[in-house]
Structure formats: C-alpha cells, structure tokens
Design goal:
The chain is mainly alpha-helical. It is built from five helices and three strands; from the N terminus they run ααβααββα. The longest helix has about 40 residues. This is ArsR/SmtB family transcription factor.
Length: about 130
C-alpha cells in the first residue's frame, strides 16, 4: 500500500516541527524512561497527555494542538480512559511513511549522488583549466 501525495505531505508536515519530534520521543520512551507513573493503569505503550505536558513544560492547549496534528496525520493512536487521554505511536503509519519516502526518493538519491560526484570532478577539472587566467 502506498500513501497518497496529500497524506505523504501531511505526515511530512507533522514531522517537520521540533516540538512534535520531542513529543514522539517522549511517547516512544514511555513510562519506563520518563520517571513518572501513569495516572491510571492503561494503554501498553501509551503516555498520558498530562505527563507529556509536564515533561515538555508546556501549556495544555499547546500540547493538545501538537498531539492533534500528529493524530490527524495518523502518527498516533489515542485511547481515552476516564478523564485521561493516552497516546501511542502508530507504527503502521510510520512504516508506510518510511517505505513511501524510500520508494519515492531512494533511486533518485542514488542518481543525484552519481551526478553530483561527476559534476564535482568536472568542476575541479574546470577550475584547473582556468586557473592560469
């Protein structure tokens, strides 16, 4: 399965913000590494929005905005338990994005690398040719 251009761009945009990357890192780390305990027993691999707020030292509204962007891009699963919302990484979407990125640009990167190597050697030769002017 491949991603549409629109979905691919939405995911790339969501991943382009350093705050969102930090949030994903916190969720990936989980409670084992956060030095906190979940407010209720829940959600294997999920982290409560309240703990993300605390770790990021950010207002709830700002954290919620970034979580919403990540969720809308399909990068997070959300589970509600009572008054708490827990977020976990959607590894299926992450893999689809990675595969699509590789499919779209991997061959081109190899070709561009070859072209760059070739043009750099031409430039070096050209600089020597014109060095006496």
């Amino acid at each position: 399965m491949s991603l549409s251009t629109e979905k691919f761009a939405q995911i790339a945009k969501a991943l382009s913000d350093p705050i969102r990357i930090k949030i994903l890192d916190l969720i990936q780390a989980g409670y084992d590494q956060l030095g906190a305990s979940p407010p209720v027993a829940c959600c294997s691999g999920g982290v409560c929005v309240c703990d993300i707020q605390e770790q990021m030292n950010m207002a709830q509204s700002k954290v919620s905005y970034h979580l919403r962007e990540l969720k809308n891009a399909g990068l997070l699963h959300e589970t509600k338990v009572g008054k708490w919302n827990f977020y976990a990484i959607n590894y299926t979407t992450m893999k689809l994005f990675r595969d699509e990125l590789q499919h779209r640009y991997h061959r081109e990167a190899e070709t561009v690398g070859t072209k760059l190597d070739h043009s750099e050697s031409n430039r070096a030769g050209s600089a020597q040719d014109y060095g006496d002017l």
